[in-house]
Amino acid sequence: MRWQQAGRPPQRGSSWSLRSWQDGLPEQSDFLATVPNPIDRASAISLCRRAGDEPAAAVHGFVAAMLWGYGMVGYGPFRTARVLHDNDAAAERLQHAAVLARDDGGPAAFDWLARHRLRWLGVAFATKYLYFCAATGSATPALVLDQLVRDWLADHADWRLSREWNVADYRAYVTTVCAWGVELGLPPPDVEMLIFTLAVAALPASQWSQPDLLAASPPPQQSPYESAEPEARDVLDALDEAGEAFAALAASLPARDVDDFERGLRQLRRIVLTRSQ
After folding, report:
1. Coil, strand or helix: which one is 203?
2. pLDDT at 250 over 70
3. How confident is the model at residue 197 (pLDDT cuts 50, 70, 90)?
4. How many Cβ atoms from other residues are within 10 Å of residue 255's Cβ?
5. Hey, which of 198, 227, 271, 277 has its CA 20 to 30 A from 111?
6. Is residue 72 part of a domain?
7. Phi and psi of 275, rounded to 5°?
8. Count of domains in the chain?
């Protein structure tokens, strides 16, 4: 594998706008001024190291994870603020999730969050936060499960994981990726990173689709739609919003209907991306 031959380089960090994030989260201005820019996985793990110790540290860790996750995406500060401001005891709940991720592992923390949901926080970004918190301990890892990883598994492993807070699916995902890591001789987070990299490489309009992609892995934190035309980005963002809204109905629908909907979303994304080249 080219990535291994290159010495397993880490992912490049995610750039973000200090001004935009300070405007969106003014109460975090001082903290934001101390965060590396770009922020990479190692920096975010460091900033989550004390997330289980006190609520304020949990908020700092959560903000760091969202910086890594959203990067330059314009609505990142708004969505992050919405989670922190629209939930009772959000900081305390994030702290408890961090403790569980660190001490009991990612699936245990995911299970607890599924039963103590934070409004506006979906699986993709919740697992980013849990990933960094779990990385500060030695229990079972938490692995990021976002749309690109989910789509790649559906397309290449015929494995359709739920967009919903499905505890069994997430536990199976972590268990399976850990087993793949043993077979490949790689830490599970590296397996997840490479799955994402392969998913990005398949996007026809992605700025990361380049020959040396696996030799110098791209940042998953920025939008894979950045190279699309503005009108196409609007459509793609709307499709993502539709997917998030549909997830609320998925638990009450037949599995075949959910599969059809998600397959249709993937096809629509490809059509829009292809036409925007």
Report:
1. coil
2. no
3. confident
4. 10
5. 198
6. yes
7. -75, -15
8. 1
What 3 state SS string does 126-144 have? HHHHHHHHHCCCCCCCCCC
What confidence tens digit (pLDDT) does each residue in 45-92 have? Answer: 999 999 999 999 999 999 999 999 998 888 899 999 999 999 999 999
Q: Are 220 and 13 in contact (CB under 8 A)?
A: no
Kindly indicate the confidence band of residue 29, based on its pLDDT and cuts at 50, 70 and 90: very high
Cα distance between residue 191 and residue 67, in whole Å = 22
Rounded CA gap, 104 and 101, in Å? Answer: 6
Q: Which domain holds residue 20?
A: 11-140
User: Is-contact 243 268, C-beta < 8 A?
Assistant: no
Spatial contact of 12 and 218, defined as CB atoms under 8 Å apart: yes
Cα(3)–Cα(30) distance, rounded to whole angstroms? 37
Q: Token pair for residue 275?
A: 């036409």
Which pLDDT value is given to residue 209?
Answer: 40
Identify the pLDDT of residue 220.
41
Measure the CA–CA gap between 60 and 83, rounded to whole angstroms: 13
Structural domain includes residue 178 = no
Task: Identify the DSSP state of 28.
Answer: G
CA 134 – CA 127 distance, rounded (Å) = 10
* Predicted pLDDT of residue 121: 95
SS3 state at 157:
coil
The pLDDT assigned to 1 comes to 59
Query: Within a domain: residue 104?
Result: yes
The Cα-based distances of 84 to 32, 50, 92 in angstroms read 15, 18, 11
Instruction: Give the angle subtended at the CA of 14 by the CAs of 8 and 20, to the nearest 5°.
Output: 175
Considering the chain, what percentage of its residues have pLDDT values greater than 90?
60
Closest residue by Cα to residue 82 from 58, 62, 98, 53: 62
Three-state DSSP at 14 gives strand
